[in-house]
Amino acid sequence: MSSADENQQRGEETAAARNEPRAPEHFAKFFECWLAEQERDLQVLRTAAASAGEELRLRPLVDRVLGHYEYYYCAKAASVRRDVLPMFNPTWTSSTENLFLWAGGWRPTMAFHLLYSKSGLQFEPRLLELIVGNPTRDLADMSPDQLERIDGLHRLTVRLEKEISEEEAQVQESVADARMVELTHALAESEEVEADAMEQEMKRKRDRMNEVLQRADQLRLETLKGLVEILNPVQAVHFLIAAAELHLKVHEFGKSKDAAGDATGRPE
Amino acid sequence: MADICEATKACSSEPGARETANEARRFRFVPVVKAVLPADDAGRKRRRLDSSASSSPVVLRSDPGDDCVENRPEHGDGTGEGVAGECPGYGVTSVCGRRREMEDAVSVRPYFVRGDHRYHFFGVYDGHGCSHVAESCRNRMHEVVAEEISTSRPGSNREWCAVMERSFARMDAAGRPGDPPPAPTCRCELQTPRCDHVGSTAVVAVVGPDRIVVANCGDSRAVLCHDGAPVHLSTDHKPDRPDELRRIEAAGGRVIYWDGARVLGVLAMSRAIGDNYLKPYVISKPEVTVTERKEGDECLLLASDGLWDVVSNEVACGIARTCLRNSTAAAGDNATEGNNCGGGSDKGCADAAILLTKLALARHSTDNVSVVVINLRTRL
After folding, report:
1. Domain-located, residue A37
2. Which residue in chain A is spatially nearest to B98 when comparing CA positions?
3. Which has the closest alpha carbon to B205: B319, B312, B288?
C-alpha cells in the first residue's frame, strides 16, 4: 500500500472518529452556502459591468470571485478525501445537472464554449462599431493575441480532458479485471475468500477514481483561472457573469424539475 | 527581412508575365453548363470585371478536351507592377473553435520559390479523418509548387494550370502506400502503412506581381475583393454540384444524401487530397483560376468552411475592405510600411482575419475556423 493510500485511510478513520457528518450532508450544506455566495458575487459583478470605467477596481473583484471558485474546489477536495463515493453521485445537484457530468463535475472545455457563445452574443450587435475599430469594452473585442492564447489553452484543455477520460476509462474497465472476476466467482460459489479481499480490491479502484476526480477538479479550476488571466478585467467580469448565470439558472431549473417530478410521484 | 526587401527590388524590374500568345478562349463557369463566350471576348482584360461575371469564376483546365482560358494581361508592367515582387501584407487567424479536434492547417510562405522573388504562397487546408494530411500539405505543398515552378517556369495560364495540377497530384501521391507513414503525433490510430480514410481540402494561392493563381480541391474557398464586391476564385467541390455529380457517377460512384450530399454516403466533398479509399470518385485534381491583378483589387480571402458556412462572400468582403480602409486611415501615410517590408503581417489584414473569425464563432460555426487575408492594394 502506498503512503498516499495510508494517508487516505487515516483521513477516513479520523473523520469517522470525530463523528463528523457524513460527506454527503456536509458537502450539501457547504454547496448551498457556496451557491448563495455565487449569487451575491453575480450581483456585484453585474453592478461592476454596468458602471463604466475603473478597470483598476475590477481586478480585485475578479480575483475575489476566482478565490471563491478556488475555495469551492478546496472544500470539495477535503470532502473527496473523506469519501469519494458521494462526489460521483451528488445529491446536492439536480438530476438535470447530473445528466451532463464529466468526471464528477462540469466539463472543462465547456468554459471555451461559454466564452465563445457569450462573446458571440456581444459581438454581432456591435459588428459595425468593431469594424471601424471602436472598442466595445466587453468580450466582443478580444484581440488577436487573446484569441490565439485562448485557442492554445483550449487545445491544451482538450488534450488534458482526454487524458483524464482515458484514465477514468482504465479504472472503470478494471472493475472487470481477472482478480475481480476471480473474487466474485468465489463469492458466488460461496467459497471461502479472505474476509476483506473484496473491500481491498474495491478500495484500490476507489482511490484511483479519487485521483481522477482530483485531476478533473484541478483542470476545471485551472481552466477558469487560465481564461480569466488571458482576459482583461472588464472581459473577465463579463465572462464570470455568464458562468454564474449559466450555473445558477441551470441548477434552479433542474431543482424545480426534480421537485415537480417528486410531486407527481414520478421517480427521478 | 532587409535582405529580402533588397532582393525583391532587384527582381521587380523583371517582366512578371511571359505569356505566349496562345490562342485564347474563355468559358463561363455557371453551376450547370459551361458557355463558351464569343472569341472576341478573349481580348478583354478580365471578365471578372464584368458585372454579369462577378460570381462566375474563370476556371482553367488543362484537359485536352477542355476549354482553357488564357486571361492575358494587356501589358507586362500593368497595374500592380509598381511593387512587383514585394510580398503583400497579410493577416492569419486559425482557431479550433467549437470543435474538439484541430484539423485545419494554414501555410503562408513569402518568397517561396528559391531564386525567384516574384511569388508568394498562401494555403488553407481543412483536414478530415485526422489532421495529418492537412499538416503534410502545410509542410510540403509550397515546396512541391516551388519545385514545379522552378522546373517548368510557367508563363502562360495553361502552364500555371499544369504546375498546380502536377503539384496537387504529387501531394496526393505522398500519402500512397510505400511512402513513409505520417508523424506519430497525430491522433489517427491507423498510422501505418497508410490512412485511407484521411484527407484534406486544399485551397492554394500563388500571388505574383501581376496575377493570382488559385488552385482548389474541396470546400475551402478563395474570394477576391474587388471594389468592394466578391469574386470567386474557386468553386467549392460539393458532391451535389451538377458537374461533379456527373463525374462521380460516370466513374461508377454514387452520391448518397446522408446528412447532406456525400460521396458513397461518406465524404461531403467531391475532391480532396488523400482519401484513397474513395478513389476514383474523389479526385485530387484541382480547379485552377488565373486572375490578372488589377487596380481595384483590395484583398484576397482564403478560408476554410468554418467561415464560409456562416458568413457570405459579400459580408466577408465588406468586412475585410472596411478593415483595410480603416487601418489605412488610422496609419495615415505610413500605412503601407508593413506591406512593403515583404512577408510582414499587416494591421488591416490582421484585423479583418480576427473579425471574420469572431463573426464565424458568433454565428455558431461548429468547425475549425481558418482565415487568411492578403492585402492586394498596391497604392493608396
Report:
1. yes
2. A113
3. B288
Assess if residue A168 is contained within a domain.
yes
- List chain B domain ranges: 2-237+292-379
Give the three-class secondary structure for B47: helix
**Cross-chain residue pair B362–A119, CB shorter than 8 Å:** yes
User: Residue A100 in 3-state DSSP?
Assistant: coil
Q: Residues B2-237+292-379: name the CATH superfamily.
A: PPM-type phosphatase domain (3.60.40.10)
Percent of chain B with pLDDT over 70: 68
Residue B127 near residue B134, CB atoms below 8 Å? yes
Q: Are strands B34-36 and B255-257 parallel, antiparallel or unpaired?
A: unpaired
ipTM of the complex: 0.84
pLDDT digits (tens, 9 = 90+) for B41-98: 333 333 333 333 333 444 444 443 342 333 433 333 333 333 456 889 999 999 999 9
Q: Rounded CA gap, A237 and A66, in Å?
A: 11
In A, which residues are within 8 Å of B361 by CB distance? Answer: 116, 119-120, 123
Residue A22's pLDDT band (cuts 50, 70, 90): low
**Most A-contacting residue of B90, B93, B94, B95 (CB-CB within 10 A), to test interface:** B95
What are the residue ranges of helices labelled H in chain B?
A: 2-11, 132-152, 157-173, 242-250, 305-308, 313-331, 337-340, 347-362
Sheet with strand B297-303: strands edge to edge: B90-95, B369-375, B297-303, B221-226, B229-232
Domain that holds residue A82: 24-250
Is residue A173 in some structural domain? yes
CA distances from B276 to B131, B146, B193 (A): 15, 25, 13
Residue B55, chain A, CB below 8 Å: the answer is: no
Domain count, chain A: 1
* Of A28-37, A134-143, B288-297, the least confident: A134-143
pLDDT digits (tens, 9 = 90+) for A42-94: 999 999 998 866 677 899 999 999 999 999 999 999 999 888 999 998 999 99
pLDDT digits (tens, 9 = 90+) for B174-228: 866 555 555 556 666 655 445 678 999 999 999 999 999 999 999 999 999 999 9
Nearest by CB: A154 against B94, B96, B353 = B96
Q: How confident is the model at residue B328 (pLDDT cuts 50, 70, 90)?
A: confident
In-domain check, residue A207 = yes
* Three-point CA angle B256, B261, B263, nearest 5°: 60
* Contact criterion met (CB < 8 Å) for A127 and B102: no
Q: Which helix (H) or strand (E) holds B214?
A: strand B211-217
Residue A112: closest C-alpha in chain B: B98
